[in-house]
Amino acid sequence: MKEVNVGLLGVGTVGSGVVKILNDNAEIIKKRLGFDLKLKRVCSKSVDDDVKEIVKDIFTDSYEDLFKDDIDIVVELVGGYDFPKEFILKAIEHGKSVVTANKALLARYGFEIFSKAFDKKVDVGYEASVAGGIPIIKAVKESLSANNIQYIKAIVNGTCNYILTEMEKSQADFESVLKDAQEKGFAEADPTFDIDGIDSAHKMAILSSISFGDNVVESDVFTEGIRDITLLDIKFASEFGYKIKLLGMTRLIDNKIDVRVHPTMVRKSDVLANTDGEYNAIKVKCDMDDDTVYVGKGAGSLPTASAVVADLMDIARNIRHDSHLRTPLMSFPFNYVKKREIVDVNELEMDYYIRFSVEDSVGVLSKISGILGDNNISIKSVVQLNKGEGWVPLIVVTHKAKEKNMQNALKAIHKLDVIKDKTLLIRIDDE
After folding, report:
1. Do 128 and 304 form a contact (C-beta atoms < 8 A)?
2. What domains appear along the chain, each with residue ranges and CATH number?
3. Three-state SS across the chain?
4. Which of 375, 385, 373, 377 is nearest to 352 (CA)?
5. pLDDT tens digits, residue range 105-138?
6. Is 431's pLDDT higher than 80?
7. Residues 377-406: what's their mean pLDDT?
8. Residue 110 to residue 100: CA distance in whole angstroms
9. Whole-prediction pTM
10. Cβ atoms 394, 382 nearer than 8 A
């Protein structure tokens, strides 16, 4: 075999980066592989101007052309659920290995796709589905494979990290910074998937599955976003010694999976707290290798495309040496992959930061603290601002308490006539 041929579906932001890398870095890729990795056919609704000239002679308007005999690996970069799933399963049925960056698809249908690939003895590469150019999938599946993973804590959404960083640096409110992020291309026109934590939940489902040998899906992940974070919260987090991050976490507790995404106060001394802007950071704690931390750009054309091409190169080596499925698709052989119970967040114990909007009158604190006490929640510190007439913020930080007790307390407190607006609850990471 003189070369391995690639078929590409989708030439948007990431797809154009893949075309550019395969074209501009063809020489170094060939030297590392020992043979050519050739882009043979491209199918897309539209093509970015900067790569149009490169793909004009290999362009097709039929994705079926990517299943032809001279194509060895197909790349899916269109995103979404239904059509990409259909496309990937058809490609596998035709005996093609697959590379995808589609975290939403894998967080919902990954087990089905991997099972089909296993049956057909072809590979699926998905490094680019989590944290862009950071090689976290390979690290978990291969570099850390001799370890029991104790937990993963991760910032895996650059949009949210950029917004929280800029709010702190520029002292601007959430809506202003979101608009700025959209203008700079760090946020989508519809930022819902990012700021509501859905994108991070997809990624944490994938990381949970490969870390613990499980079939974790998107609906298993407890998810909250950052819409309600204000400058006041960022200020008080700093005064208490923390930074607010949208944090993804996963771990095993009594053989159940605890997997969550929510705003979290992280100690300033933690490397995650010091990862700013559009950067991602993933901390993996293992039993034999302790903490390893992976930091880099979690999105963007070339960083993500770099991960796609790395998968292409890995699979091309497997094809060349007839060694498909050398590394298990889900990090564990299928006979070890389980479907564990998901930990109910209500049973967890954490410290909490709570921001109430209260009537500035005598006895308010005693009513709130009384309800907290009735629910076995003890107060660590209290700050009440702007004494005078009207409604004022009341900040309460608690000692460890059970989530169920906290939610029950908040329901009771919200019934008080001295409470106005929505109360903000942020969990504190003190481990």
Report:
1. yes
2. 3-133+301-336 (3.40.50.720), 136-297 (3.30.360.10), 345-429 (3.30.70.260)
3. CCEEEEEEEEECHHHHHHHHHHHHCHHHHHHHHCCEEEEEEEEEEEECHHHHHHHCCCEECCHHHHHCCCCCEEEECCCCCHHHHHHHHHHHHCCCEEEECCHHHHHHHHHHHHHHHHHHCCCEECHHHCCCCCCHHHHHHHHCCCCCEEEEEEECCHHHHHHHHHHHHHCCCHHHHHHHHHHCCCCCCCCHHHHCCHHHHHHHHHHHHHHHCECCCHHHCEECCCCCCCHHHHHHHHHCCEEEEEEEEEEEECCEEEEEEEEEEEECCCCCCCCCCCEEEEEEEECCCEEEEEEEECCCHHHHHHHHHHHHHHHHHHHHCCCCCCCCCCCCCHHHCECCCECCHHHCEEEEEEEEEEECCCCHHHHHHHHHHHCCCCEEEEEECCCCCCEEEEEEEECCEEHHHHHHHHHHHHCCCCEEEEEEEEEEECC
4. 377
5. 999 999 999 999 999 999 999 999 999 889 999 9
6. no
7. 90
8. 11
9. 0.95
10. yes
339 catalytic, yes or no?
no
- Residue 273 banded pLDDT, cuts 50, 70, 90: very high
**Range 58-80 average pLDDT:** 95
- Active-site residue identified among 116, 203, 283, 297: 203
Residue 324 exposed, middle or buried by CB count within 10 Å (0-12, 13-18, 19+):
middle
